[in-house]
Specification:
The structure is a homodimer of 557-residue chains. The first copy, chain A, contains 19 helices and 21 strands. In chain A, 61% of the residues are buried. The model of chain A has no long low-confidence stretch (mean pLDDT 97). In chain A, strand 8, helix 11 and strand 9 form a beta-alpha-beta unit. Chain A has a seven-stranded mixed β-sheet, sandwiched between helices. A five-stranded parallel β-sheet of chain A has the order 7-6-5-8-9, sandwiched between helices. A three-stranded antiparallel β-sheet of chain A has the order 3-4-21, with no helix packed on it. Chains A and B meet through helix 1, strand 3, strand 4, helix 18 and strand 20 of A and helix 1, strand 3, strand 4, helix 18 and strand 20 of B.
Chain lengths: 557, 557
């Protein structure tokens, strides 16, 4: 039962080995350069990728998969670009049946081959990173550089990270073992044991509108590598990045000698609720979901035949106690609020500041001065429209605009509409900052996804930590940060973060931002608070995607 | 944040290191000698252990824990011995509150200290193994040697195995890491990251009547080692082995400087349903259960705030195709059916034999000859009462007797009552074997826990494999075996076992039995079929019992 190395494994063995080291050390590492510069990717890559993307617009997406009955087009670009791509759509039964049929040969190929083929899919996606970045940009509303990084390089890093965890988990036990038990004066008992890695069944990945690749890749590749065929159900607003992904995966699988139906795209016609139909299928044994708390909770409660991994919503919180770099604090937080117009699941929402103000390297700052400092940093980033849109991108959908219209109170910074210089139909909004009293928990105690943040006036830093603990404990959070020059406060914040189960960043005043997590080093989400039931990526994220089934027989004495 | 090694860790570091090697290699290893011989444990150990056990009878069990309102005694020994031990009983609120309060200091002690303290608990249990074995024997009905092995040495091995997995999982990531990202021409970005292992909350372990220690220890120690306080809810019929366990755990925890309320006993008064009350508490975030499918399914459906690990019932199956050692086959299966009167979750129930018989080293054997051969082996083991009871032990409860009375059909071997030479009030029954047609799936397609097995006449081995796949796929199984001299049949059986998700033993004719699994080498249950949703022990069994919460801050440039 020894596996002959598959050529795709051999080709990527070094990368996989390096990734295995990275997940064990969790220092800095990246496999896919994040700079779209011609110096890194060559002079022609950007134009070729954009041309490949443009060629798709207005056409049927070239995807030959079973069960296609008709073609649907559901995307509306936040940049106002007419996408007009239609996708094969049809019979859920046919998709699930085709996926299930592909399982045994993929299972029997073994961990090493599966991981090698998955690594080749990543390499092929990387070769098409500019096309992918354009697709992410024009469906999610991210600015180009962010789409290239978060939607391209970082998504691939997260995918490779999941692949490494899956490989580590599958190979922590040998494929075979000899067992020899002493038996007193007689011959020892000798057995040969074989340990099969057995996938759970069909896996379903439900993508989101804002990060169609970054949030989908870890689950997709963790499930595929562990032997499960994957049905990818994209958000109706961001199909193209995942259609490209599915097409490339299918090509590589076929080249490697496997059934391409191991990866299938399941788009939905408006109102079809195909995600729910798929999630309740008995063949579907794994679900990965990123999106609203309401739907994530529904999946957890109803897709009982499956193991369900969810990333939902929360109230990301910043505790401001004091700082020795007030300008850096304002710049750093201002950038975090502005990036992608706050449409990241990791964007800070609640900035807790003592009503009496804070001490800084610029002397005492009142709460209003703190709020004004952050607002000024946002204002500076967004003053020039051409520069602003490279940070803000565009607004992903009308839900965000509705929340912007709804939010009220003591406005520190008004949201402004900006005309996008390159895309006149783009919907662009700058962040708003609203000042609230600590008792306005009905407002700040829930998520306002989009460019909406609150400066909350608390009695003291101790009070801030109480609010932090209470709101995050109840509603969850994906990120948290603290600013303090006092080690005791930093320790208390860390203890509160551990109690609430949320990752904490301390005194970020430079080029690391609370809303960014680095693959191979930072865990994204923790699974320890209501915002998510899993982390990207740890052992728990991969270990439940397969089981071990053993056989044993005697060896000759 | 470096941990100074706790003395209990230092004391057991070598054992833990050896256990970590064992779980990675999965060859033969054992930390606790399974022979109760005086040559191993000393001349006085057996008598002292029995005396310690006898001293407990008729008394209040010495356990000082919070919330005790009254004392309850619920055990009735299958051997007819009057146990009369009463246990503290009372306020669920007080137990859960005390457990929750003990969490932070235990969490903050870190993985190494926790694992060291847990290893010391195991060593202390081992020092009391004869007392423990008596307690298992007289509550479960196991014969002494089995109680010593399965309830003592093997249970401790399984506990240590779970401890090793927990330690491996917690230490696969460093406690701290440095991250240095190149930043073009500027100084690199440098951060220090701390990764906290954070337990899920209070863990609940629900024990069973037949294997109070063996089935409870893995979950208990996996949860405790990962930082979760554990409330142990024993079966009302087998409290004493877990009361001893809880007492010793509390003593060691207190000695080590921790709150003894990290391990608590929650006995129930008759009809109280305290397991359900505990399982639904919001503080309870992990449940480990061994027992009926009905209650396991209830826990999975209702204890939604918790991660639930269940081992339930199934239809263990033997496919008999051919053999080159017919006598060995009969002896081996006869022993498996007789051991503990078939009251193991791993005892074979359905023996699938082609109606046309099989080829053997003794020539062709008809189905009736196969059945008679197995029956004769059982008969030989149980002919002499004094010898028989050392295999059969006693019948654990009236449910088993009811099934024996209910089962009907073409009886190959009648169950007999045996007078126990040492315990006149013991309820002892030998196995029955019933012959069924393949269409009697209403009978053999469900579990008949106890000394009840079926020889099912199939059309062919291919038909046997179809039945195997179908019944195990639908009802689950913990064990399966195949007998064949044909490699193609063995391969087909292995494929069927992988498809059905059940562990397979091939051609067992010697001193390894299908109902026994060896810690550190054999996985018990797979989690891949309806009989259990988890395996003892793999990465998935421990990874979900904690989360990682990180903090990060800049390092000086």
């Amino acid at each position: 039962m020894t596996e002959t190395p598959h050529p795709m494994y051999t080709a990527h063995a070094d990368t996989l080995a390096r990734a295995l080291t990275a997940i064990a050390e969790r220092g800095y590492w990246s496999a896919y350069p994040e700079s779209p510069s011609p110096r890194v990717y060559g002079e022609t890559a950007a134009a070729q990728g954009e041309a490949a993307f443009r060629a798709l617009l207005g056409n049927r997406y070239p995807l030959d998969q079973p069960g296609t009955v008709d073609w649907v087009a559901t995307e509306a670009s936040p940049f106002g670009v007419d996408l007009g791509v239609s996708y094969p759509h049809g019979d859920v039964d046919a998709l699930v049946t085709a996926a299930r049929a592909a399982l045994p040969a993929w299972r029997d190929a073994g961990p090493q081959t599966r991981v090698g083929v998955c690594a080749e899919i990543l390499a092929r996606l990387h070769a098409n990173i500019f096309e992918l970045a354009n697709a992410v940009q024009f469906t999610s509303g991210q600015a180009f550089v962010m789409a290239f990084q978060a939607g391209g390089a970082h998504a691939l890093d997260r995918a490779l990270e999941a692949l490494a965890y899956a490989y580590a988990e599958m190979s922590r036990h040998p494929g075979t073992a000899e067992w020899e038990k002493p038996a007193g004066k007689g011959d020892p008992l000798r057995m040969s044991k074989t340990f099969h890695v057995v996938p759970r069944g069909v896996a379903l990945v439900i993508g989101c509108n804002t990060f169609p690749t970054w949030n989908s890749y870890p689950g997709l590749f963790a499930s595929l590598a562990t032997g499960n065929p994957v049905v990818v159900k994209p958000h109706p607003g961001a199909v193209l990045p995942l259609a490209i992904t599915v097409r490339i995966a299918r090509e590589v699988l076929a080249e490697a000698g496997f059934d391409p139906n191991l990866v299938l795209l399941a788009v939905e016609a408006p109102g079809e609720k195909i995600a729910s139909t798929l999630a309740l299928r008995p063949e579907v044994r794994i679900v990965d979901f990123t999106g609203s708390t309401e739907y994530g909770d529904w999946l957890e409660a109803n897709a009982r035949q499956a193991t369900v991994y969810t990333e939902k919503a929360g109230v990301n919180t910043i505790v401001v106690d004091s700082t020795d770099d007030f300008a850096g604090l304002c710049r750093n937080l201002g950038f975090s609020l502005t990036l992608y117009s706050g449409q990241m699941c990791t964007t800070p929402q609640n900035i807790l500041v003592p009503a009496g103000g804070i001490s800084t390297d610029q002397g005492h700052k009142s709460l209003d001065e703190v709020a004004a400092g952050i607002a000024a940093a946002v204002g500076k980033l967004t003053a020039d429209p051409a520069r602003a849109v490279e940070f803000t991108g565009a607004i992903v959908n009308d839900g965000v605009l509705a929340r912007l219209a709804e939010v009220g109170g003591d406005v520190v910074l008004e949201s402004r509409a900006i005309d996008h210089p390159a895309h006149p139909a783009a919907v662009v909004r700058t962040p708003t900052i609203v000042k609230l009293a600590a008792d306005a928990v009905d407002t700040y105690g829930r998520e306002w996804f989009g460019p909406i943040s609150f400066v909350v006036a608390t009695d003291s830093t101790a009070h801030s930590l109480d609010i932090f603990r209470e709101t995050v404990g109840r509603k969850g959070a994906l990120t948290a940060a603290v600013y303090s020059t006092d080690e005791k406060v930093l320790d208390a914040a860390e203890e509160a973060a551990v109690d609430a189960g949320v990752h904490l960043s301390c005194n970020l005043t430079g080029q690391v931002f609370v809303n960014q997590s680095a693959a191979f080093s930072d865990f994204h989400a923790s699974g320890a608070n209501p915002a998510a039931n899993a982390a990207l990526t740890d052992g728990a994220y991969v270990a439940g995607r397969f089981r071990i089934v053993q056989s044993r027989r005697h060896l000759p004495a």
